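Bit of a strange request maybe. I'm writing a small parser for structure token strings and I need a real example to test against, not something I typed by hand. Could someone generate the tokens for this chain?
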Amino acid sequence: MKHDLNKNKKKVLIFQKGTGFSVKNRNFITNKPAMLKVEVCATSLQSIRHAQEAGADRIELCSELTDGGITPSYGFIKEAVRLSSLPIQCLIRPRSGNFIYNEDEFQIILENIRMAKHLGVAGIVLGFLTPKNDVHWEQLHQALTFAKPLEITFHRAFDLVRTPEEALGKFIELGINRVLCTGHPTQAVEGIETLKRWKSVTLGQIEIQPGGGINDHNCHWFVTHRFESVHLSAQIKTKQGAPGSNEAIWEQPKEIADLELLKKVVAICKP
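Reply from user aminoacidic:
Good idea to test on real output. This should exercise your parser:
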């Protein structure tokens, strides 16, 4: 297959059921972003303030990040929307653990989508799997119907999907905006080759958003490879000691995004 060397043309990915991806050429100008957007995973109002002050672009709102994140409360969402000048993507996840939900849990998910939409968020972040680590398409379809016209991010459950490139094609058909993923069990920088492949095969029809372990020491890799945005919490760990002891015995992440770390990341992502 010959490669199109015309820089003003872009190859367009077409997903065909039963056949996978094919590529067609379209004559339109490619407008790749010159800078990365920075999305901050915020578990507090102060984190939102820090994200705004640092020059971030978007908030993912959640609670209990140490357990992987769950849906924030009604009051937290309401106050976050009131405070934030940045668009808020609200995590929809009723509990920690896996991403396999029974009917009762799924009904809670739908009600949480309704709540977040009513409170004025810009988008939601969600993900559904089957016991075989396939996307649960029926639940996803229902959730998307409830969420319209909000932006949709499929979260890091995607890293567990057995056939990720096939799933990406279906996400494009469904109009999902982005996929938050690492391409690796824990660290996005370790999974960068996988992320680059997913970015290449989708050709800009869905955003591949790196997240997981991103900081001021590694975010330049995602600038170099021209991703659209990165996702981080910027929560740093502090030593904590037992009551009455001067000895630090465990590390506890702060619930507030570190302002100076965010400023460094933003400066690198938006030179």
